[in-house]
Amino acid sequence: MATSEGEANFFGLREAAALVNAWRQATKLPIILNLDHGKSPAIIKKALAAGYNAIHFDGSSLPYEQNLAQTNEAVKYVREFSKTFDKDIIIEGELGYLRGSSALHKEKLEIKPQDLTSPEQAMDFIERTGVDSLAVVIGNAHGVFAAGEEKLHLDRLLEIKKAVGDKVFLVLHGGSGIPAEDVRKAIELGIVKVNVNTELRLAYQEGLAQEIKNQPQETTPYKILEQSFEGVKKVVVEKIKLFGSENKR
Questions:
Q1: Average per-residue pLDDT in the chain?
Q2: Is 59 annotated as a binding residue?
Q3: What is the mean predicted confidence (pLDDT) over 140-151?
Q4: What value, to the nearest 5°, has the Cα angle with vertex 54 and ends 201 and 38?
Q5: Catalytic residue IDs
Q6: Residue 37 assigned to a binding site
Q7: Across residues 65-94, what is the average pLDDT?
Q8: What is the 3-state secondary structure (H, E, C) of the chain?
Q9: Please, what sign has the CA dihedral across residues 188, 192, 198, 204?
Q10: Which of 85, 119, 144, 165, CA to CA, is 20 to 30 A from 226?
């Protein structure tokens, strides 16, 4: 589970943590709550205090050395917090330029060579920051692009994996809209976490629009949200199976 800064501000960091904790207790599953694309020390500190157990610090829009320095500071704070409160916290960094946003885009996706994560920089980055996970850019982007599917540069992923080995977990953001076969191959080549958001939002939106159309006079929220919930659930089940996570704990 994850919340962006915007989602966390809307829903509430403590509220999200309380809900996930309730699910953990009810399901007995090791559910992780991740702060996605945290871009400031303030939001990281608030998320940790609220009970998040994974932090993604995103300094990818910064010049390389600045990204490295700020990620390093985030790692130090997370490590100190973990030691003080005896908690296991995962800290993730990001390297490369991830285009798009979590929405449906009408334009064609254009990935430039300089957007991609450099294998050499990836190795330098993890050695100098000590992150547990690294979000890479290999042709992925945020959102779903109507003018064609995203195609992953699997050769670049292979180069990154060869460079970093098992020193870090590799993460694929922008998991919506990527061909299933590319996702399977990326997991085979070393991706251990795939972030999916836009496909869930679209399923929610489509279900809500259909229910309002079917029942224009209905005002009871739980009645008009049923199709939205079922649509989101369907996408989640499909992704769990695609990622090879079915019946795993």
A1: 95
A2: no
A3: 81
A4: 65
A5: 36
A6: yes
A7: 97
A8: CEECHHHHHHHCHHHHHHHHHHHHHHHCCCCCCEEEEECCHHHHHHHHHHCCCEEEECCCCCCHHHHHHHHHHHHHHHHHHHHHHCCCCEEEEEECCCCEEEEEECCCCCCCHHHCCCHHHHHHHHHHHCCCEEEECCCCCEEEECCCCCCCCHHHHHHHHHHHCCCCEEEECCCCCCCHHHHHHHHHCCEEEECCCHHHHHHHHHHHHHHHHHCCCCCCHHHHCHHHHHHHHHHHHHHHHHCCCCCCC
A9: positive
A10: 144
Share of the chain above pLDDT 70, in %: 99
Q: Tell me if 58 is assigned to a ligand binding site.
A: yes
Question: What is the structure's pLDDT at 149?
Answer: 64
Residue showing tokens 């943590």:
17
pLDDT digits (tens, 9 = 90+) for 6-21: 999 999 999 999 999 9
Residue type (1 letter), 75: V
Using the structure block, give the residue that is written with the tokens 């809209």.
177
**Across 103-107, 206-210, 213-217, least confident range:** 103-107
Q: Cα separation of 119 and 164, whole Å?
A: 8
In the predicted model, is pLDDT for residue 146 greater than 80? no
CB atoms within 10 A of CB 186: 24
User: Per the annotation, does 142 bind a ligand?
Assistant: yes
CA 156, CA 84: separation in Å to the nearest integer?
A: 39
Q: Is 107 left (phi over 0), alpha (psi -120 to 50) or beta?
A: beta
